Amino acid sequence: MMLERCLPPWRRFGAMLIKEFKQLGRDRVLLAFILYAFTLDVFLAASGVSLSLSNAVTWVQDLDHSAASRELTRRFQAPYFNVNHHFDADREGQQALDSGAAMILLSIPEGFGRDLAQGRGAELALQVDTSNSVLGFLAVSHGEMIAARFGLDAALARQGGTARDAERLPGVSNAMRVWFNPNQNDSWFMGIAEMLNIATVFSVLLPAAALVREKERGTVEQLMVSPLSPFGILFPKVVAMSAVIVSGIAVTLFLVLIPVFDIPVKGSLLLFFAASLLYVFTTAGLGLFAATVSQNLAQAGMLSILILSPMLFLSGAWTPAEAMPAWLRWLMYASPLHYYLDIAFGILLKGQGARELAAPLLEMGGIGVLVLGLGLLLFRRQFG
């Protein structure tokens, strides 16, 4: 025992680090799950989830059967709309909307073309399934723009004008520039966001699982009577799990996001991985907290879900801070994932450097020091 106490701290740290890697290597199911999460799961999220309106199933009820109604129907086309059915009875269309067979019902009443040609108000109905509020809002917006443009073209045609005449009308010139994702490719956002979410999940679960397994097997008491301090027990676990998670992020970037989805890396990869390592350390403290107050792996898993759910939903990835109530916004600012999102998107898509990202880096680091300190304090009180 005296000889062990005389060992340099780095020798003790190295021995514990090797022990953590060996324990993780024996759990092949967990390793397979980590590999799946950082590869196939991110690929499915980036390729299968879209926040844009695409090929929305549209049913048309054309009771007018005029040139004007056919022209209006023709404008509801790909990539936003997919007109694949025409119906006459109101009940048929309502059943399709209720059952999900159609997302949009476009109803053109009898006399639509005649009223339009005579300069009277011509009405039509657009019914949209907004169960998915985002896609429903986009469908309504695109439908309104199509109807407004069609009405303007019809008014010009009635006055003997052309599309060139419309360009000569006074109006506001709207010069729009799309930055950082010019093609508005959903896979860039979804792929990066899913990678960060997976890193968050494992940053909490892996350290928690590593410590709880020690408690279940009774080896944590053996470690406490060894020459190791509480910090010497916990820190190698955090370092080992951080190395695994950062390696998973590297696999995602270099094997999935960059080669498959052509995601640009406009900033420094060294800065990105340094920020990722800081984030993993920050979030690992939450896992240690969950493991300290849990008696078994099931309890740690349930408590980790309780911690992860608000972190993921209040990160700002799905809802910006400005759209949240004031009290909920303050909770979001306490989530380290909120700052990590700004850092990751800033480096990868915007090319920002350490100077531009100094504020979120410092805020995330401050949360990490507080959380890790709290986890260490609880562990020391329980086993000290």
Question: What features would you describe in this structure?
Answer:
- This protein has 384 residues and is mainly α.
- It folds into two domains: 2-49 and 184-383, no CATH class; 56-168, abc type-2 transporter like fold.
- The chain is built from 16 helices and four strands.
- It has helices spanning 2-5, 9-26, 28-48, 67-75, 90-99, 112-117, 133-158, 163-168, 186-217, 219-224, 230-261, 269-292, 297-313, 326-333, 336-348, 358-383, and strands at residues 56-62, 81-86, 104-108, 125-128.
- Strands 2-1-3-4 form a four-stranded mixed beta sheet, sandwiched between helices.
- Strand 1, helix 4 and strand 2 (81-86) form a beta-alpha-beta unit.
- The longest helix is centred in the middle third of the chain and has 32 residues, at 186-217.
- The two termini are 19 Å apart.
- Residues 1-5 have low confidence and may be disordered.
Topology:
Elements: H1 2-5, H2 9-26, H3 28-48, E1 56-62, H4 67-75, E2 81-86, H5 90-99, E3 104-108, H6 112-117, E4 125-128, H7 133-158, H8 163-168, H9 186-217, H10 219-224, H11 230-261, H12 269-292, H13 297-313, H14 326-333, H15 336-348, H16 358-383
Parallel strand pairs: 1-2, 1-3
Antiparallel strand pairs: 3-4
Helix pairs in contact: 2-11, 3-9, 3-11, 9-11, 9-12, 9-13, 9-15, 11-12, 12-13, 12-15, 12-16, 15-16
Q: Provide the helix percentage.
A: 55-70%
| Average pLDDT taken over every residue | 86
Return the structural class: mainly alpha
The fraction of residues in strands falls at 5-15%
Strand order of the largest sheet: 2-1-3-4
Major sheet: 4 strands, mixed
What form results from the Cα inertia axes? elongated
N-to-C SSE series? HHHEHEHEHEHHHHHHHHHH
Low-confidence stretches: 1-5
Rg (CA only):
29 Å
Q: Helix segment count?
A: 16
Cα(first) to Cα(last) distance is 19 Å
Structural domain count: 2
Number of strands: 4
